[in-house]
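Hi C.,

You asked whether I'd gotten around to modeling the 122-residue construct. I have! Everything is below, sequence then structure, no commentary in between.
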Amino acid sequence: MKLHLTQGAGLQLFSGYGPGFVAVNGVRYEKCVVVSPQAVSEWIVTGFDALTVAHFGFIEALKPEIVILGTGAAQRFPGRELSRALAAAGIGVEIMDSRAACRTYNILATEGRKVVAAILTS
């Protein structure tokens, strides 16, 4: 699925999503990624079932208002301990399938929100 890239000069925005990949500003990533308006980073996680609190540690350091967790092709809810760690730092967490997470992130980023998307591609 191709996402329509809105005007967001200098922002890292999702431009596509499909089975096993996302695209940010036209660059295809086939690994899990963490995207902020300023940067794209590979997210070293092998999949949903492997998620631990440690996978969210560096996200907290980015100081977002909200983290959008894209859980792959289907919406799945991780254990409460994962979102609790971010909530304790005052960071909101929204969980959705990765396609919806990409769209939601783009909207929030272009509104100037301090948002981070953590996207599982598998």
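If it helps when you're writing up: Strands lie at 14-18, 21-24, 27-29, 33-35, 40-42, 66-70, 92-96, 115-119.

Thanks,
B.
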